[in-house]
Structures are given as structure tokens and as C-alpha cells.
Design goal:
This protein is an all-alpha fold and 207 residues long. It has one domain: Tetracycline Repressor, domain 2. Helix content is 67%, strand content 0%. It contains nine helices and no strands. Helix 1 packs across helix 4, helix 5 packs antiparallel against helix 9 and helix 7 crosses helix 8. The relative contact order is 0.11.
């Protein structure tokens, strides 16, 4: 059986299918536990117990809880980007593309327990990096920059990059609020968030 590629930062690359599946179980368990206990209240032992593996199995692939959660964020970022790309509406302007991406984000918060756990805990990738790690960027902000520059001819400037990081951070915080106010997302809060994100990007629209 072919061993699936493991795109996460792990201590040891799995060479067997069973080991690859074990990593996925650890990540699934981590998302569930964080949803229940929050990031601060979650321990590596909690993750191992929820995944029904020994704590040594967790440490075989991840040095600590932060590394596990970084892999969870990486995995769900990839899923989000894949869904945005797969369902991207044809022949729309940049506003439609940004609104589409935000709709995908909200839909994943509604329907994907792991994605909702990460968003609900506020675990932006930058928050999981070590102090002094360098670039405080976010992979979603970087992906939006690529889309706007390549497809819609935005100028790739530090100001645009900073604005997109603001958009991703604002979207994360306010969407979490929307799901605290209502189980399926508070409509007015989601609409206000969508509008603010579009207005921030509009300041960089090509003239």
C-alpha cells in the first residue's frame, strides 16, 4: 500500500501506511481536545489519550503540543485553500473572489469540526511560532496575496501584505464571535465581517 505524503513538519517521516494514519489520528484528536478544553487547557497527554496512542507515539512525530497544533493548522489551511480553488467562481472580479473565500471559511467553520476548533481557539499560525521566528505572516494572507496579484493585477506591496494579514486576523476574531453569538454563525456579525474585509482590500484596488 502506498504511503501517503505527510506535508506537516514532523520529527520522523512515516515509511508505513499505518504510521501515516497514526499521525492523522493524532491531529484529529488534537483538534477535538482543543475544541473541548481550549488550547491552554490541552496537554500532550490529553492528545495521546484521545488518539488512543501512547504519549511516546506523539513524541515520535512531534516535540511538543505546539508542534502538534501547528500541524493541525497547516492541515486545515491546506483544506481551506483546496476548497477555495476547487469552487472558485469563474469570471468574477476580485470582490467576488474575496467574498467567495470568506464564504468557504464560514462554511468550513460550520461543517468541519477540526477547522472550527482551530478557528475557535484563535490559533493563527503566527501565534504558534517561537518568539523571534521571523515572519509573522499567515499562510491564508499569503495565498490571498498571490491570488490578487496574479489574477487581479494588484501591486504586490508591503502595504497590501499588511492589509491582508489584517483581513485574516479580523476575519478570524469576528467569525469566532459570530459562532459564540449563534450556533450556526450570527448573520449580522458575519455580514459586517465580510463587508469590512472587502473595504480593507478595496484600498489597494488597481486604478
Amino acid at each position: 500500500m502506498t504511503v501517503p505524503e505527510t506535508p506537516y513538519r514532523v520529527r520522523r517521516t512515516p515509511t508505513q501506511y499505518r504510521a501515516s494514519r497514526q499521525i492523522e489520528r493524532i491531529l484529529d484528536a488534537a483538534a477535538r481536545v482543543v475544541a473541548e478544553k481550549g488550547y491552554a487547557g490541552t496537554t500532550t497527554a490529553d492528545i495521546a489519550k484521545a488518539a488512543t496512542v501512547s504519549i511516546g507515539s506523539v513524541y515520535r512525530y512531534f516535540p511538543d503540543k505546539t508542534a502538534v497544533m501547528r500541524a493541525v493548522v497547516d492541515r486545515h489551511t491546506r483544506r481551506f485553500q483546496d476548497q477555495v480553488a476547487a469552487n472558485h467562481p469563474r469570471a468574477v472580479g476580485w470582490r467576488g473572489a474575496v467574498e467567495h473565500a470568506y464564504r468557504v471559511y464560514v462554511d468550513m467553520c460550520r461543517g468541519d469540526d477540526g477547522f472550527r476548533a482551530i478557528s475557535g481557539a484563535g490559533l493563527a499560525t503566527g501565534e504558534l511560532e517561537s518568539p523571534g521566528a521571523g515572519d509573522p505572516g499567515d499562510p491564508l494572507a499569503a495565498a490571498f496575496a498571490v491570488m490578487l496579484v496574479r489574477r487581479y493585477r494588484f501591486a504586490d506591496t508591503p502595504a497590501l501584505r499588511a492589509t491582508l494579514l489584517q483581513c485574516v486576523t479580523l476575519g478570524d476574531v469576528l467569525t469566532r464571535l459570530a459562532f459564540r453569538l449563534a450556533g450556526t454563525g450570527h448573520p449580522d456579525t458575519l455580514e459586517q465581517t465580510r463587508r469590512m474585509i472587502v473595504e480593507l482590500v478595496a484600498a489597494h484596488e488597481p486604478r
